[in-house]
Each structure stands twice: as structure tokens, then as C-alpha cells.
Design a protein that fits this description.
The chain has 153 residues and is α+β, with helices and mostly antiparallel strands. It contains four helices and five strands, in the order βααβββαβα. A hairpin with a 4-residue loop joins strand 3 and strand 4. This is N-acetyltransferase.
């Protein structure tokens, strides 16, 4: 992988094509149905300052190689605000380049600068490569995640 340095920065409007390619890769990794409408919607959220979704990207040799989509979330149990990492993805061709570590470091630094209490995320239990990194960077919690489908009244 050479000595290329990974830099992390906020998503810019000119990143659209590269960001969308990475986000499609993220969706493919998690075996989500291909859906350009979803990709377009998430991109629009990141570009819209009135939504809570924000994005950062990892860049190497002038190319986007990773992304992290995140947002603030209220924590009533502690009376604080945390950062929730919704999506983290690094192009498979540059895995182990330090891009994911750099994205997590930037989230940690930004959270500290904003007075946030935690950076939190979930991952698939079988995502062994990512979990190896996450175990070095964060503490696994005892909490189990549930999803409940909304139903009309």
C-alpha cells in the first residue's frame, strides 16, 4: 500500500460521485438491495445543513477511500449528547491502510471538541475484520439492539 498518508475531512459537494460509489459499496457489503434513491437521499441529507446527518471522508493519494456518516443524538439517561456513527466504510482495495482508524480518530476528536459524551455505533456480529479494529478503538457494550417495525393506529 505504500507510504501514502490518509487524511480525513468533511464531505464536500464535489465529492458526490466518489462518495456515492463508496456508499454503494457499503450497501453491497451489508447485502442491502441496490437502491440509488436511498443513496441520493442520504447524500442530500449530508449536504443539507438543516438535517442532523453529517459526513466525513478519508482521502488517500487524492482519492476518496472511506466514509463515515454520523449524527448527534440525545442521551436522556445521562443528560448529554453523543455522536452516533451510522455508517463506516473503507474501499476493500485499501483496507488496513489506516483509513478506518483515521475516520474513528476524527470522530473522537470532533466529539471531544463539541463536548459530546460518547461516540457510539453498531456493527454486524459476523463482521470480524471491523470488530477487530473496533475492539482496539472502543469498548463493546452489554446492550443488545432491537428493531421494531412501525404499525399504523
Amino acid at each position: 500500500m505504500g507510504d501514502a498518508t490518509v487524511t480525513v475531512r468533511a464531505v464536500e459537494a464535489t465529492d458526490e460521485a466518489a462518495w456515492k460509489a463508496l456508499y454503494r459499496g457499503y450497501r453491497d457489503f451489508y447485502r442491502l438491495d441496490p437502491d440509488d434513491a436511498v443513496v441520493d437521499r442520504v447524500w442530500a441529507w449530508i449536504q443539507d445543513a438543516t438535517t442532523v446527518v453529517e459526513g466525513i471522508v478519508a482521502e488517500r493519494d487524492g482519492q476518496l477511500v472511506g466514509l463515515a456518516n454520523h449524527r448527534a443524538f440525545h442521551r436522556p439517561s445521562t443528560g448529554t449528547i453523543g455522536t452516533y456513527l451510522d455508517d463506516l466504510f473503507v474501499d476493500p482495495s485499501v483496507r488496513r491502510s489506516g483509513a478506518a482508524t483515521a475516520l474513528l480518530a476524527r470522530l473522537r476528536e470532533d466529539a471531544a471538541a463539541q463536548g459530546r459524551s460518547v461516540v457510539r455505533w453498531i456493527t454486524a456480529s459476523d463482521n470480524a475484520d471491523a470488530r477487530s479494529l473496533y475492539d482496539r478503538e472502543a469498548a463493546e457494550t452489554r446492550w443488545v439492539t432491537y428493531d421494531m417495525a412501525p404499525t399504523p393506529r
